Automatic annotation (TrEMBL):
GO cellular component assignments: cytosol; peroxisome
Family classification: Belongs to the Nudix hydrolase family. NudC subfamily.
GO-annotated molecular function: metal ion binding; NADH pyrophosphatase activity
Protein name in the entry: NAD(+) diphosphatase
Entry's EC annotation: 3.6.1.22
Catalysed reaction, written as an equation: a 5'-end NAD(+)-phospho-ribonucleoside in mRNA + H2O = a 5'-end phospho-adenosine-phospho-ribonucleoside in mRNA + beta-nicotinamide D-ribonucleotide + 2 H(+)
Length: 398
């Protein structure tokens, strides 16, 4: 079974320890804790990851905490302010000009399924032990607003650079891709959420960067005469704006009722980029929808076609552009409807075409073709769905 980009993680998140300030203190005191770095691109504002260029494919730099005393001191200060922020309403970001997220621990360093499979020296495999748990902690650091951090990295690391190139990102190893996706989605969330939706005050990342807390301490008299926070977000014990949100997206591979053709589309937004690029159909789930009802709606809006009832939900994939959960599905169009396709409903696609399953199979398996179209890159859920539906069409005909 194919491993989709971002879907193979080797970190145990230990989410129940995020609010444990004693544990976070031990993480930043442990010499072998690893740091990965991000910053905002100066051109398009996207988050770039710090990656090594020493091999043919990029490799995320996992910097040991004890590699540089200045960096170690900065992280120690972050841990102190993180602890202080859990008891007060200070804004960590304004104190430090960088943000940090505890990602979890690698419990099996040095093995093939580890974030650090190539490291065999005992000092590089040293694990932090906290209560009954042990592993190598990993922290993600966004240094976009901190010139000191950026200058330090430039001085101490060779053959590494910040990149957000889609080619570089899709060429990360499966484990690096999972770490990249996980960290980027958290840091992107922190970057885009600076103010409380309830009162407009600034928010501060607490619980080692995994929860946002409103800094507004104004209080008023509640309905029972008690003193309560004036901010409606801070007043409630449970709400959905303090933690990261993820957007579910359905992505659908379509075949005809005979099972010998596959429908693919060209996105109108790519008109000037690559006229040969064809892919599956996709769209965000809306409020009150099931996965199945979203598939039916999106296919009709993008193609004008209706589906048979046998919609298959196949696989899911975290997609960090910016923070989506791709839900892979396969659908079959109603018999006799193949020629009723249209791009004039939501106008998201500018060209739709039925392709013979054998032709798509040649592209999927790298056999010679006329080069008329290109498919999504291997490792993406779109490619794997196209491969699945192609294999199914051909095996059905045999």
């Amino acid at each position: 079974m194919a491993v989709f980009f971002g879907a193979r993680s080797s970190l145990n998140r230990f989410s129940f320890l995020r609010s444990n300030v004693a544990f976070i203190r031990s993480v930043v005191a442990f010499p072998n804790t690893r740091l990965i770095f991000y910053r905002k691109s100066q051109t398009d504002g996207s988050l770039q990851v710090y990656a090594s260029r020493k091999s043919s494919n990029p490799r995320i730099v996992y910097l040991p905490l004890d590699y540089n005393e200045q960096i170690k001191a900065l992280l120690g200060r972050w841990a102190m302010i993180n602890e202080e922020a859990t008891k007060s309403s200070i804004n960590i970001r304004r104190r430090l000009n960088f943000t940090c997220v505890f990602l979890g621990m690698d419990e099996n360093p040095g093995t093939k399924d580890s974030v650090f499979p190539e490291e065999h020296e005992s000092r590089h495999l040293a694990r932090l032990t906290f209560e009954k748990h042990s592993g190598i902690p990993v922290l993600a650091v966004d240094i976009s607003g901190n010139a000191e951090f950026q200058n330090l990295l430039d001085k101490i690391i060779d053959d590494a650079e910040f990149t957000s190139s889609i080619t570089d990102i899709l060429n990360l190893s499966p484990i690096d891709a999972a770490v990249f996706s996980y960290a980027k989605m958290y840091l992107d969330w922190l970057l885009k959420n600076q103010f409380c939706p309830g009162c407009g005050s600034s928010v501060s990342p607490i619980w080692a960067g995994t929860k946002l807390q409103c800094t507004n301490e104004e209080k008023e008299v509640g309905k029972d005469g008690e003193s309560v926070f004036k901010c409606p977000v801070r007043r409630t014990r449970v709400n959905n704006v303090c933690f990261p949100r993820i957007d579910p997206v359905v992505i659908i591979a379509l075949r005809n009722s005979k099972g010998d053709k596959i429908l693919l589309g060209h996105n109108a937004r790519r008109k000037q980029l690559d006229k040969r690029f064809f892919s599956c159909f996709s769209g965000f789930m809306e409020l009150g929808e099931t996965i199945r009802s979203t598939v039916i709606r999106e296919v009709w809006e993008e193609t004008g076609l209706k589906l048979k009832n046998n919609i298959k939900i196949i696989k899911s994939q975290p997609w960090p552009f910016p923070a989506n959960l791709m839900i892979g599905c396969i659908g079959t169009t109603e018999e006799g409807s193949e020629n009723n396709i249209t791009t004039h409903l939501d106008c998201e696609l500018d060209h739709l075409e039925w392709f013979d399953a054998n032709y798509i199979a040649d592209i999927v398996y790298g056999r010679p073709t006329d080069g008329r179209i290109k498919l999504p890159q291997k490792g993406s859920i779109a490619f794997e769905l196209i491969k699945m539906v192609t294999d199914d069409c051909i095996s059905t005909k045999l």
